[in-house]
Amino acid sequence: MIGLWRHDVPVTIQGDGIELRKQSLGDMTVAFVQGRSGTDLRPALQGLPGNLCPCPHWGYVLKGTVRMHTQEGHHDYGAGQAFYWGPGHAPEIVDDAEYVDFSPTKAFEDVIQHITRQG
Fold first, then answer.
1. pLDDT digit string (tens) for 21-31?
2. Which residue in 4, 20, 69, 87 has a CA-CA distance of 20 to 30 Å to 30?
3. Alpha-carbon distance values, 24 to 16, 47, 73, 86 (Å)
4. How far is C-alpha 95 from the chain's CA centre?
5. Residues 53 and 87: beta-carbon distance below 8 Å
6. Can you tell me the distance from the alpha carbon of 86 to that of 55, in angstroms, rounded to the nearest whole number?
7. CB-CB contact of 90 with 42 (8 Å)
């Protein structure tokens, strides 16, 4: 069994209103994300298929509100809500938010590498 504390997981992305900490656990990766109100990640996803994140995520919103944009529109996820974000999404932080998600390691790493090259 493995247990992780957010503060023990290395920071992968920090700045522009977002902090992402991630730790690979084999085929899956856990990410702890904190974002400031008004942070929109759509620009960082430009160049990916459909300009959206192609990686699926399963998780839980701990605090605040996250708006997930898709080709069909958007949906807001609030504190206390579990989620599945399938391929083809882009997050925006509506209210200061924290969430934890679990994603396939290879697909998530490809997205992180794309985002970090944008900065």
1. 999 999 999 99
2. 69
3. 24, 25, 31, 19
4. 15
5. yes
6. 7
7. yes
